[in-house]
Design goal:
Blueprint lengths: L1 E12 L5 H8 L13 H13 L6 E5 L5 H9 L6 H6 L4 H10 L5 E5 L5 H11 L4 E8 L4 H4 L8 E8 L7 E7 L11 H9 L4 E6 L2 E7 L1
Helix pairs in contact: 1-2, 2-5
Length: about 220
């Protein structure tokens, strides 16, 4: 059986905040002036990762269905003179890049992932089978405006980060992978529901890939 143990967790939600309010709330976590060009998602993801202190030998996995929604909205609105800064900020893994560049911290391996219905399972599988001593799995979304009205953005702003290791001593929870019949349908668990399950310390089960059941049990 494949298993990994959850040793630390960091969660932050900011669904009722705009960028200015989030920047004001978390600015003490960052060097003076560092937050001026950071996005809301960058601030949230950076805050969760900072709590887990990424190290150069870690594997870092990032999941986001929509990524830098507000930067993308701003970039599209900047036409016919598109903003190079907003273009650079709007790329999918920008939130993690903001976190790691600000820390001037390398990592052993970085795997950014996107998707919709099966994104949680798609992020958990490489996290659980990674040979790294420690895997940091982070994820997040930021609330959109006009993209949300069109159904292509998140309706809440949040970020999460978890510390996964094969060492059971001192762990908070256990992830395990067990086989199931291939015809069992894959689970439709969104990032928001995964965030809520971690926040509420609920045991979770999802078919993350054909034939593979991932279970989370709190210790």
């Amino acid at each position: 059986m494949i298993e990994q143990y959850l040793h630390a967790i960091s969660l932050v939600e900011a669904s009722h905040e705009d960028l200015a309010a989030t920047r004001e709330r978390v600015r003490d976590r960052f060097p003076r002036g560092a937050t001026r060009r950071m996005t809301q998602l960058g601030l949230l993801v950076s805050s969760t990762l900072d709590a887990l202190s990424p190290q150069p030998e870690d594997t870092l996995i990032y999941a986001s269905a929509y990524g830098e929604t507000c930067a993308l909205e701003g970039y599209l609105e900047s036409f016919p003179t598109p903003s190079p800064t907003l273009f650079q900020t709007s790329i999918h893994p920008s939130a993690v890049q903001q976190a790691m560049i600000g820390r001037q911290s390398p990592v052993r391996e970085f795997l950014p992932l996107t998707g919709r219905r099966h994104l949680v399972g798609g992020a958990l599988i490489p996290a659980l089978i990674s040979p790294a001593t420690r895997v940091l799995l982070c994820a997040g979304e930021e609330k959109g405006t006009w993209l949300l009205e069109r159904g292509i953005a998140s309706d809440r702003s949040f970020a999460l980060a978890i510390d996964l290791r094969r060492e059971p001593n001192g762990a908070l929870a256990r992830f395990g992978v067990t086989p199931v019949p291939d015809d069992v349908p894959m689970s439709d668990l969104g990032l928001g529901a995964f965030f809520d399950g971690l926040r509420d310390r609920r045991d979770l089960e999802l078919v993350a890939a054909p034939g593979l059941l991932v279970g989370l049990s709190w210790l």
